[in-house]
Design a protein that fits this description.
It contains 5 helices and 3 strands. The protein is an alpha+beta fold. Strands 1-3-2 form a 3-stranded antiparallel sheet, covered by helices on one side.
């Protein structure tokens, strides 16, 4: 993911200097260090993983996971993306719904992952779950 960020955002981040967040600058710098062989191997692995999940998603409307390792952070961005990056890497559609509550009434997201290319089915499933 960091390598894709470096490829897609690297020039803009370099031109913007300190206008980009330190976190983004660090991620782009880290992604710039990935070798082509390592990047291509990761992409191949992601495609194999996606193909394996396709078999599961033939029988089920979605995969249900937490969207993050805890409650939503107060006063800052979206929080830890650890539970999202796999779906981004594989190109599978994902949607998060704030269905649960944690400490201080802060939302806890529930994430649904759908079949590749079937975003409409995933959104119908999410709509049903939100209503239930």
């Amino acid at each position: 993911m960091y390598t894709d960020m470096a490829h897609n955002l690297g020039d803009m981040v370099a031109r913007g200097g300190d206008a980009s967040s330190k976190q983004l600058r660090d991620l782009v710098a880290e992604g710039s260090q990935t070798s082509a062989l390592r990047y291509l191997a990761a992409r191949d692995g992601a495609l194999r993983y996606r193909a394996g999940l396709a078999d599961i998603l033939k029988d089920y409307d979605a995969i249900l996971t937490p969207s993050s390792p805890g409650v939503a952070p107060k006063g800052i961005g979206t929080g830890n993306p650890a539970f999202n990056t796999l779906w981004t890497l594989t190109g599978l559609p994902a949607v998060t719904l704030p269905l649960l509550k944690g400490d201080g009434g802060m939302p806890i997201g529930v994430q649904l992952i759908g079949a590749f290319g079937d975003d409409a089915r995933l959104l119908r499933t999410a709509n049903w779950l939100a209503g239930a």
